[in-house]
Amino acid sequence: MVVPTVQGGYMSLTDWSAFSLDRQFVGLKNFASAFRGEALDAAVRTLFLAVVTVIGQNVLGLLLAVLLNGRILGRNVLRTIIFAPLVVSPLVVGYLFKYIFGPPDAGALNALLEALGFAQVDFLGDPTVALWVIVLVVVWQSTGATMVIYLAGLQSVPPELHEAASLDGANAWQRFWNVTRPLLAPAITINLMLGLIGGLKLFDQIFATTGGGPGGQTKTISTLIYERFAQLGLYGESAALAIVLALGVAVLSVVQFAMLRRQEKKTS
Fold first, then answer.
1. Which residues contact residue 225 at a Cβ distance below 8 angstroms, ignoring those fewer than 6 apart?
2. What is the DSSP letter of 120?
3. For a 10 Å CB count at each end of the chain, is N or C smaller?
């Protein structure tokens, strides 16, 4: 583990590429390029996707957990159906959505729109729409995991607390906000942490759905690392980007964890 890390660190300080056998020491030049141009755009896009997907999967996961924690018919079947996408490979899910949101005269959704008399849309050809398709893919696949964690938290809340709050005149929202929410703090921390880390490392769904297109407008740091390493052969630059991504994930995770733990203590 240590040796590859040291080698990667050394590689990031050189101009090593597929076009030259010589490795010239260039210092922090590769790291400087990670904070401008295409790499900077990819970093901003990565952060955007991480934040939006975390919010989406946690809001939906919590709503579904609250719903399926009640006494509704077929709740176990519904839990299984919602959780099922998580066990499917992200690449397979990405290719599935690529087929659904395919171009006019090819995609399943466009075929449906045409059958209903609506104009077809180039979902993956529009940078803004394509970015939201990726959000949809990630949220659809990840919501089941957040739901399960929230369900575990909800089932650990003593019913006596809700009964006491009801006797005091608290309505359903007040019981959730003042009784359930504080006890869900550990589950919220876990889901937000896992969601942020997964969002910052996002690769498979983008690779399968858009490949970083159109025009590179859906590239993230992970897809940029792959492109510069496997396609362009810029090993030094890709190593520097990988280190920047690892440090970014570590720093943001530590900051988020500290904030969430502080919030847990306030609500406990």
1. 238, 241, 242, 245
2. P
3. N
Task: Name 14's bridge partners.
Answer: 25
What distances in angstroms separate CA 30 from CA 216, 246, 250, one per listed residue?
Answer: 20, 15, 20
Domain span at 101: 2-267
Helices (H), 12-118: 29-33, 37-68, 75-83, 90-100, 108-115
Question: 56 pLDDT exceeds 50?
Answer: yes
Please state the pTM of the whole predicted model. 0.88
- The closest of 205, 231, 78, 240 to 144, measured between CA atoms, is 78
Phi and psi for 56 in degrees, rounded to 5?
-60, -50
> Which range among 65-69, 166-170, 199-203 shows the weakest confidence by mean pLDDT?
166-170
Is residue 61 within 8 A of residue 83, CB to CB? The reply is no
Q: How many domains does the chain have?
A: 1
Cα 145 from Cα 188, distance rounded (Å) = 12
